[in-house]
Amino acid sequence: MGRMSDQPARWTRATVYPDMWVDPDDDPRDRDGVGPDGELATLLEFLTDYRTTLRMKCEGLDAEQLARRSVPPSTMSLLGLVRHLAEVERDWRNWISDADPLPKLYGARDADFDGAVAEQAVVDAAYADLEREQATTDAALAAHSDLGERLGKDGTSVRELLVHRIEEYARHCGHADLLRECVDGRVGQ
């Protein structure tokens, strides 16, 4: 285990509030005015904000930094989180469909994290996979604006699916906070 002096110094880009990731004027999640009207619009805004937060936590890092693992025996890395969330987005489509399950993007269990290696091609593919899977899942759910509608073999409600998506991103954004701080010391909400 490294000594305290081996750890990166904690820092932030924010100057207005030192516990923030960026200043409010530079935060793409900060919107002027009141929040959205309605439950669906609110859920979608939270999902969008957590997706943006994940990308913000990864920005400015090279392939090695993105693939850097947390503490053993964990295989978690920022790149692994990007790949994992692409895999999860794909899996959620299985919840809303009566068709046969879609094949896994990365293969066997934990391959999303195990295959998160420090190669730029892997990083580029992970971001492309995440963007594609998010857009495809978003499009599939856009056809179902009634939050109480039940979908798929298990009758999962649209509301439950949206809340679960928010929960998944929020949980992993918490992991991303700690992973990023371990990589280069950057902290903030």
TrEMBL record:
InterPro entries documented for this protein: DinB/YfiT-like, MST-like
Gene3D superfamilies to which the protein is assigned, alphabetical: dinb family like domain
Pfam families: MST
Highest taxon above the source species: Bacteria
Protein's recorded name: DinB family protein
